[in-house]
Amino acid sequence: MSEFQAYLQLGFSHITDSNGYDHILFIMALCTVYTLIDWKKVVILVTAFTIGHSITLALATMGLVSINRDWIELLIPVTIMITASLNFFYQIPKSSFSKKEQTSTLRYPLAMFFGLIHGLGFSNYLKTLLGKEAQIFNPLLGFNVGLELGQLIIVFIILSVSFVLIELMRIQRINWINILSGIIFGMAFSLILNNPFFRTLMGMSVN
C-alpha cells in the first residue's frame, strides 16, 4: 500500500468513525432539510464546507496556523448546534419537486466558515499521525481525499433515508426536519456539557 493510499484510508476512517461522531453530526445537520431530489443544492453546500476545512487542514498541518486544540474541540459542537438550529427556520416548499424553493443563502457561507473550524479539528488528528515526518504533501492529499469519500457516503445515506421517509413513506417533511434537528442539537449540546475544557471554563467539576 502506498503512502497516499494509507492516509486516504486513515482520512476515511477518521470521518466515519462512530467514536468521533461530531463531524458526522455536522454533516447530518447540513443535510437534514434535503432529500435526493435536492442533490445539486447539497453538492454546493458540501463543497463550501469542503473548501473551508481543506484550507485550514492544509495550513494547520504545515504549521502556518495554530489555535489551541481545546478551543477547537469546544467550537466544533457549537457549529453543530447553530447549523441544527437553522433547520428549524427552513421554509418548506408546497411540493418536494418545486423549483421555487428558496434556500437561505446564509447556509453556504456558514458552511464554509464552519468548515474552517472543522479543518483545524482534522489537522489535530493528522499532525498526530505525521509526527516529525518531513514530506507532508502526499499524506495531506491522501487524508483529505479520504475525508471527502467518507463525507460523500454519509451525505448519500442521509439523503436516501430522507427520500424514503418523506417521498415514499409520506412522513411530514417538517416533522422529519424538526425531530432529526432536535436530536442533533441535543447530542451536540451534550458534547459541550461533557467537554472538559468547557467544564473548566464554567468552574464545573471535570470528574
From TrEMBL:
The keyword Membrane applies. It holds the Pfam family HupE_UreJ_2. Keywords: Membrane, Transmembrane, Transmembrane helix. InterPro entries: Put_HupE_UreJ. The chain crosses the membrane at residues 20-37, 42-65, 71-90, 110-129, 149-169, 176-198. The keyword Transmembrane applies. It comes from the Bacteria. This is HupE/UreJ family protein.
